[in-house]
Amino acid sequence: MAFDYSLDFKNIDFRQHPELYRVGKGEQGVLLVEPYKSEILPYWRFKTPEIARESSEKIYQIFLDYLEQDDFVGADMARKFIQMGYTRSRRYANHKSGRKYKQNSQASNSQKEILPYEVDPVKAESAAIFKAKWIQAKTNEKYLQLLARHKKMYEV
């Protein structure tokens, strides 16, 4: 089931109301779902491989802590932050500015020009660090069990 952007995210505590949470695709809702966003965001960094390693390990530990509490929403949010660490550092690895498309107010969305790749090996290493943790998280057996249970209970 698609992520529901129509919810009143400023006033919903998803720990108290997991039935309102939808997994969606990829990183959808990663910066919306509380209290998890506020618990995880302070640790999300990827500027250098050292920072990325520390960040990914901390967020992965948070992921494991949520799993230990059978808190699927928290675990899924931690997984999304780890995934976002990969995708954002990968974008900066490919485009120094962090922007994928050339700024052109004349062109329509279908005519966006992709900026040339300027591979940054430091950001690429940060991306690889997050990618390894993301794969660990999304293939974790307990996570997969809680995901199936959440979908069965709430996303029918």
Mind explaining what this structure looks like?
The protein is mainly alpha-helical and 156 residues long. It has one domain. It has five helices and no strands. The chain has helices spanning 36-40, 49-68, 72-94, 121-138, 141-154. α3 packs antiparallel against α4 (121-138). The longest helix is centred in the middle third of the chain and has 23 residues, at 72-94. It comes from Dendronalium phyllosphericum CENA369.
How many strand segments? 0
Shape: globular
Helix content: 40-55%
The biggest beta sheet, please? Answer: none
Strand content: under 5%
Distance from first to last alpha carbon: 8 Å
Overall domain count: 1
Number of helices: 5
Low-confidence parts, pLDDT < 50 over ≥5 residues? none
- Radius of gyration computed on alpha carbons: 17 Å
Order of helices and strands: HHHHH
Topology:
Elements: H1 36-40, H2 49-68, H3 72-94, H4 121-138, H5 141-154
Helix pairs in contact: 2-3, 2-4, 3-4
Tags for this model:
5 helices; DUF4385 domain-containing protein; globular; 156 residues; DUF4385; 51% helix; mainly alpha
Quick structural overview:
It comes from Dendronalium phyllosphericum CENA369. The chain is 51% helix and 0% strand. It is mainly alpha-helical.
